[in-house]
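Researcher: Please generate the 3D structure of the following complex. Treat every line as part of one assembly.
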Amino acid sequence: MTELVLETQDICKSFGALRASRNISIGLKAGEIHAVIGPNGAGKTTLIGQICGTLKPDSGSVRLLGEDVTQLATRERARLGLGRTFQISSLAMEDTVLQNAVLGALGAAGNPWRFWQDALKDRALREKAESALERVGLQDHARTRTAELSHGQRRQLEVAVALTKEPRAFVMDEPMAGMGSEGSKRLTEFLDELRSEAPILLVEHDMDAVFALADRISVLVYGEVIATGTVDEIRSDAAVREAYLGEDA
Amino acid sequence: MIRETYLNTLTLGLFVLIPAWALMADEPFTITLMTRAAIFAIAAIGLNIALGIGGLVSLGHAVFFGIGGYAMGILAYHAQTYTPVAEWPFLIDGTKSMPIIWLVAVIVSSLAAFVIGSLSLRTTGVYFIMITLAFGQMFFFFTISWAEYGGEDGLSIYLRNGFPGLNTLAPIQFYGLCLVILCLVLLFTWRLSKSPFGLALNAARQAPIRVETVGLDPTRLKLIAFVISGAITGLAGALFADLNRFVSPTMFSWQTSGEIMIFLILGGVGRLYGPVIGALAYVALEHWLGGLSDYWHIYLGILLLLIVLFGRGGLIGLASGRKVAHD
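Model: Done. Output below.
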């Protein structure tokens, strides 16, 4: 078995009678983008919650870099190297873009117990934050209040905050949502390069982006992975076409 | 519209000019009023760290104010009766020295804040408000039945405690001391709000999940904020007791918690000078409206209502026209 950076083994999660995850086993190899697609309500967000630690699976386990992290809290998984971006941006909206990025750097440094120095004047934090902003193209908005950013720019900032941690694996929940076609094209190019730094588990609705980027695709329907394979395999899979892609795919 | 910095400078200016005038016009009562405002401001700055930056709506800050007060009351009471505070496990004598009293007030109120915070932070929202309120009531009723220290009647301290090199009985000198502490606390809070801790705490208020995701613990950040907050309010309590030379369970009452919160809402939650302006405005209203009618709280209520409805940023927000509190 090849070394998986991130994997779920047989995880199950039910909410009452609703079985949101049924024996899901998916893995993320070094250097790949693994896309998870599926219709609304298929259980994609539940799956991400369990991978990142906001939800605990009823059974099964989650492994990060070979270590069982099923019982670890979100912040402990983050410290081990899991970088996450949210579907609904959860940034400090009143703060500036730079402050949000510095928060990421601060998390990576792991020591918020300093009460006197100016965080924005801390050389190490600031450089890390600024280089992350530059990589996603937000350097000109560093002083902008986050609430004033467009939805697409917030997504870029989400990615930048994740970057400050130099994670070993990314989990991205619909990073393209709310972006114009220009922005989503730029982000596609960016993620294409990013995979060599750390593999990406990508949940995305934008099929152009998924087909352009993914090395492998898993299709989630009613909490179950009905197929995993390369782009071509998934495109030609009859069950997938029926369940999800529709006739024109 | 006035820039916020001008407004802040103006406020600090009033804290210098009014007492200076009072000193020349021989109006010691005005100096006492200003001392009251300065001490209330310190108490509310404490609450502002928990509430304004950390988003912790504590209706139990009277606990720390009261602990500060009783730290002074108990130590000074034993000093004036020449009895020890405790004989076991080792002898502790009372004291009339302000620096020692302050230290005790800060340490005990931080410990109380740590315990109360650890328990209360398991809850959020309205439950957090209720549990902090409940702790306040516990302390209130405990001191009422604490006969050794006056119970319901409280404790009178005949002479104001001393500070090396100062005659604290002269109103202007005690005021100066309070003003210096106010400025130091303001400086500390200003640095804190920009520090890495402040940045993380600020984010923990707005988006706790974000703070988790970058690998930090939002609950721990809030707990430490609550402890710092309690310590500052405790220090204010010790000063307040020394101003009145009297402590009573009233310091622990939920009305006191409410008043501290009113200073903050009046001035502007989350703004550095919000508590200072709020406390000054409250003392001024208390003095003038209180002179007009015994029911002056009704006017305060109307003012508060107007501020909450139309000027979310408190008096600072109304004057400077900026609604978003954090810079």
